[in-house]
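user: At home tonight, take the chain set out below, taking as long as you need, and be ready to discuss the fold:
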Amino acid sequence: MNVITETPTVKTVRLGPAADAAALPFTFLPGQFLNVTFSIGGARMNRSYSISSSPTQRAYLDLTVKREPRGAVSRHIADLLKVGDELEAGGPVGRFTFTGTEANSIVLISGGVGITPMMSISRYLSEQSWPNDIFFIYACRSPADFIFAKEIAELERHNPWLHVTVVMEHPDGTDWQGLTGRLNTDVLSQAVPHIASRRIHMCGPPVMMEAVRSLLQELKVPAEQIKTEDFGTAAPPPGEGSNRFAAAATGPLVSFSKSSKSAKIHLDQTLLELSEELNIGIEFSCRVGTCGICKVQLTAGEVDMAIDDALDADDKVKGIVLACQAKPKGPVTVEA
């Protein structure tokens, strides 16, 4: 393992194969992510990080991580990981992928560290000499926060099909000569001709993604052409956000068979949220239905799931559900 500093708050962890292997023991698609697990302060913590390297690079895999002041795992990665350390990882997983066969052009819109899956896709398509337009649009806070600036410039120099647009929100006091401010309909329509007819991938902070989604609606981009990648946040510490479920639960009874605990659930609550109230200990990472870490066996009853990307056909046949998405239709029993 190696650690590369990208910006003052972002580092790339470069993972290699075991000492006796010449290549990684698995393959992945551009745009997928890994689930990594650490033991921190006696607790087992899972997080999901997009892969920023190209799948053609079989000798290594890059995870690019932003250090969050309140993020236990990201702080551990940024402050404590060192060359030679081993990581426990699962995957790769995720359907936010693009290999060049899905459409005849691609628009990649990202903000902040959401640039990571876009780099994997852009690197891969460039290495494959994919002869179609790649529109790479990046919203960045300041020049000091521009992740992969040199790599993007190098890719653009060597790939005539790659069209890069960077918008810098706070360039004051720097020598930035490009676009400034935030993304808007003028920037998007000028950067991407006929944008309403193209496939779009989007990844970044939730506020940025909601704003861009509204811009794309204004530009008449059909919703089915927009693919997004986002990761949820960890459960709030006790005392934070407690008002959400302050009233008495009036939903169906949920029984956790292994823990011998049961309780009624709130009507808008997920199995994962109830399990956290009862200290069941179901593991999780993304909280948005894509990583699969919170898979549990449903042994009785039925649930609704808005997103089930992490489940394959065999999981569904066996009655496996995602605790972060599952909301009971009636009384249920969960093997947890």
